[in-house]
Amino acid sequence: MSTALRPMTDIAFALQGDFVPTGYARALLQGIVAALPWFKEETLAGILPLRGTQHDKGIWLPRRTKLVLRLPTSRIVEAHGLSGQQLTVGEAHLSVEAGEVRPHVGHPTLHAHLVASLLDEAGFVASVQNDLARMGISGQWICGKHHILPDGDKAVSGFSLVVHHLKPEQSLLLQGMGLGKARHLGCGIFVPFKTIPNLE
User: Fold this and answer.
1) Are residues 78 and 114 in the same domain?
2) 47-56: Cβ within 8 A, 24+ apart
3) Residue 129, domain extent
4) CA distances from 63 to 24, 47, 71, 188, 197 (A)
5) CA nearest neighbour of 7 among 35, 36, 42
6) Does residue 27 share a domain with residue 88?
7) pLDDT tens, position by position, for the chain (200 residues)?
8) Which of 102, 121, 141 is the last residue before a domain boundary?
9) Which of the chain's ends, N or C, has fewer CB atoms near its CB within 10 Å?
């Protein structure tokens, strides 16, 4: 079981496949758990959202698409077992190729596409303030757009979030811990973000 203090690392797998259906996150999780049964027990582990272009049939994946998992560093060797696996994600079929380890860097600005929350914007802002303070993170932050992640008959809602002016150790902590729930569905995972001009 994960703990807050375990070092975290990303591993990026080359991926062969044309598309995934809209609302693919749960099916992708199930495919990964079938290959790596321990994955779901790691509460801080996550699957970064796939990058692609939305079309009627789903999300089309460019050739250089990567499947990126955020894992405790102690699990990286086992995670390489995902290489060579075939994942069925709805009507899509994905081939997982070699994985590349990507250690975290203490970048001053981080972004999460969706931090899961059932609260309205005012409540979300208050919860983020409390969570960051509890973690000892003093950086500034910007609440972004409201998003809804389809999940079968359900949905995960929340807001995007940028946290900036982070010290290196705070950045590494936030990348390792994340915020909110549904990390296995791609929520609350922070990645380095471009510099935001005129922020003081």
Assistant:
1) no
2) 47/184, 47/185, 47/186, 48/10, 48/186, 48/189, 48/191, 49/25, 49/113, 49/114, 49/186, 49/189, 50/15, 50/20, 50/24, 52/19, 52/20, 54/22, 55/19
3) 110-192
4) 18, 19, 24, 26, 32
5) 42
6) yes
7) 333 457 999 999 999 998 999 889 999 999 999 999 999 999 999 999 998 888 877 899 998 899 999 999 999 999 999 999 999 998 889 999 999 999 999 999 999 999 999 999 999 999 999 999 999 998 899 999 999 888 766 789 999 999 999 999 999 999 999 999 999 999 999 999 975 544 43
8) 102
9) C
Selection from 66, 100, 98 nearest residue 85 by Cα: 98
Work out how many domains the chain is built from and give that number.
Answer: 2
Q: The tokens of 134 are what? A: 């509890």
Tokens of 35: 């290959």
For residue 120, count CB atoms less than 10 angstroms from its CB and return exposed for 0-12, middle for 13-18, buried for 19 or more.
exposed
Structure tokens at 52: 């692609």
Amino acid at 110: L
Enumerate the H helices of the chain as residue ranges.
25-35, 76-79, 121-134, 168-177
User: Which pTM was predicted?
Assistant: 0.90
Picking from 20, 21, 48, the residue whose alpha carbon sits closest to that of residue 182 is: 48
